Amino acid sequence: AVAAAMRLGAVLSALRPALPLLLGLSLGCSLSLLRASWSHGAAEERCLAPGPPALPARGAPPEAAEGRPVPGHEDFRPRIVPYYRDPNKPYKKVLRTRYIQTELGFHERLFVAVLTSKATLNTLAVAVNKTVAHHFPRLLYFTGLRSAKVPHGMVLVAHGDERPIWLMYETMNYIHQHFGSDYDWFYIMQDDTYAQAEQVKALVTHLSINQDVYLGRAEEFIGGDEQARYCHGGFGYLLSRSLLLKLHPHLDSCRNEILSVRPDEWLGRCIIDFLGITCVSQLQGQHYHTYELAKNTEPEKKEEEEFQAALAVHPVSDMTLMYRLHKQFSRIQLDRVYQEIQDLQMQIRNLTALTPAGEAGVTWPVGINAPFLPKSRFEVISWDYFTEQHLFSCPDGSPKCELSGASKADVSEIIESAVEQLNRLYQPLLRFSKRQLLNGYRRFDPTRGMEYTLDLLLEAATQKGHSRVLAKRVSLVRPLSKVEIIPMPYVTEATRVQLVLPLTVQDLDFVANFLDMFAMNTLDTHDNALLTLLFIYHPYDAQRVGQVDVFAGVKAMIGELEKRYAEVKIPWISVKTEVPSQVKLMDIVSKKHPVDTLFFLASVWTEINMEFLNRCRMNTISNWQVFFPVHFQEFNPALVYRGEQTASSNTDFLRDGHFDRHSFAEACFYNSDYMTARTKLAADILDQDEVLESMEVFDVFLHYSGLHLFRAVEPGLVQKYTLRSCNPRLSEELYHRCVLSNLEGLASRSHLAMALFEQEQANST
């Protein structure tokens, strides 16, 4: 018995760790069987129950009992649209929208209409435009009659009649016709109304777009129904897209049947009579706060909560009062933001103290990302040294340059901010004033912003008048603010690209490969691209062209391509010069093409492909932006592989090479933009053609156009290694840039070190 008890105890001790698992499995299986029996029983009862079908729950429509979607909720049910192609009809390529937002039917958030008049267009309307217009995504001004000159920067719609009711009727029609399908919310205000733009935008983000909304300051009709309300036009009002769509068919009836003196009353009566919707000041938990200004009001002294919470203020009698209101509300909003920042920083400190890192885990400044920690020496972000007069890390690579422009303004602002923060911290005990900036360091950290370290020579004065000069080191951060998407003009991928290829005698060995790649990637694929060749003859070769043409072989290749592709013509232009200036060559090509031509200035080592041509089309915008891609230059295979087989797998793509930032040979730009910049250049140099030999097309756009210069690495442009000939007759800068491109294109540091090591070993043996 004792032995059996011992064996039983051993078995129980062995099974004890598995008891929770066994109990969990048993309980789960029991519950599953019990649930299955209940479901089976309920199914049998439904199948065997005689009589009519069960009625839906109270308040539910009959469709709910039959499994059909409930009216009003179709938008929330996924629908599968079957694809059907009629075999009797020819196949037609489906044109997709450029943006997924258009295809999915998304709308913009808010449209704002400002009702003005000819008398106040140049006063109150201008004040509205300068204070709040740039905060709204889209804002238009509507008036009956317009003045001879429209103020700059304002989009004005004139209806031709100053009658208030007619102006409101035409405005609602115009909004429905041009913007009814593009926006979810429509905010109507007068030019004597000050609206807090950010508060209005925040309001619409908290309202549901599926309801008919008529929101504003509710007012009673004179002698009308006590329950009916209209929205006072002076304080602005908000209409939803669904309400506007329902209201539009009834606008003509309202114009003919409803008599009113005030346009806001007329609109409110129209909405009530035909839609049965009255104005409300509160909806879905959101309040539309307003404030009515009294005469001779001073906004700077308004501290009551009703004023600070107002979304709209009315009436605003003049421009000065509008600007004062904007200044006061901006100050109130700024104070709120600072208070929110302080509250968030306090919460971050309290929560960080509970983490494993403790208080040591709090970053400075609180709430800003920690500094970037490099994983290797190649990721270290270098500091730029500066003083109040000079910068010791210049954009052109020189060791020292004068501090000017935006950099000088940045340094001055940072020094003033440092002294101000010190005074705020130590006053009233000490008062600091700047003597001199001893040392300054700054660097841009992409994870947090611009960092500064300043060594300041300060004079500290006490309350008793004693002063002392001391040095103080301070650290500052200019954090990255809210990221904005810059609106760009619409471009398409159907634009024809005109390739321009300059050729010299030294380039003859590489022309065949260029033409083969051009034929394979553009002609065979029927890409919308053309090619023009520039044959650059040396004066000696030009004199002998009748006897020996150095470009005869290239012309024969072009003839073969034109025979193979009957619809293709490849023209060439012959130029005689000793110094093949890029600007002079483009002057010749520009005159032979229309102004709307999209040029791609290529080099003979470029391997053309459709991927890059599409990016050339997308990144080049007429009268807006030019594109200078940075091609990928492969290293010298003799130094990289040293006799080994060249890697050709896809995983090694863009590995054994570098992006050649010294080369500006490739460029995408429109002929009209080049001609405009070239005209300004001609007026500046005054027929001094020798200046053109020291310039490239990039310099023309950089110094003589106001366009965006988009300079970015381009993985679609890959060039094989070749030692390029640098023309010593070009300017010193261009020649030096060409030499640097050749040297840096030899190999990486590790490959060069290995080659030197092997050479030293070979010499030692």
UniProtKB/TrEMBL annotation:
<keyword id="KW-0325">Glycoprotein</keyword>
<dbReference type="GO" id="GO:0047238">
    <property type="term" value="F:glucuronosyl-N-acetylgalactosaminyl-proteoglycan 4-beta-N-acetylgalactosaminyltransferase activity"/>
</dbReference>
<keyword id="KW-0812">Transmembrane</keyword>
<keyword id="KW-1133">Transmembrane helix</keyword>
<dbReference type="Pfam" id="PF05679">
    <property type="entry name" value="CHGN"/>
</dbReference>
<dbReference type="GO" id="GO:0050510">
    <property type="term" value="F:N-acetylgalactosaminyl-proteoglycan 3-beta-glucuronosyltransferase activity"/>
</dbReference>
<keyword id="KW-0333">Golgi apparatus</keyword>
<keyword id="KW-0472">Membrane</keyword>
<dbReference type="InterPro" id="IPR008428">
    <property type="entry name" value="Chond_GalNAc"/>
</dbReference>
<dbReference type="InterPro" id="IPR051227">
    <property type="entry name" value="CS_glycosyltransferase"/>
</dbReference>
<feature type="region of interest" description="Disordered">
    <location>
        <begin position="52"/>
        <end position="74"/>
    </location>
</feature>
<protein>
    <recommendedName>
        <fullName>Hexosyltransferase</fullName>
        <ecNumber>2.4.1.-</ecNumber>
    </recommendedName>
</protein>
<dbReference type="GO" id="GO:0032580">
    <property type="term" value="C:Golgi cisterna membrane"/>
</dbReference>
<keyword id="KW-0808">Transferase</keyword>
<comment type="similarity">
    <text>Belongs to the chondroitin N-acetylgalactosaminyltransferase family.</text>
</comment>
<feature type="compositionally biased region" description="Low complexity">
    <location>
        <begin position="56"/>
        <end position="70"/>
    </location>
</feature>
<keyword id="KW-0735">Signal-anchor</keyword>
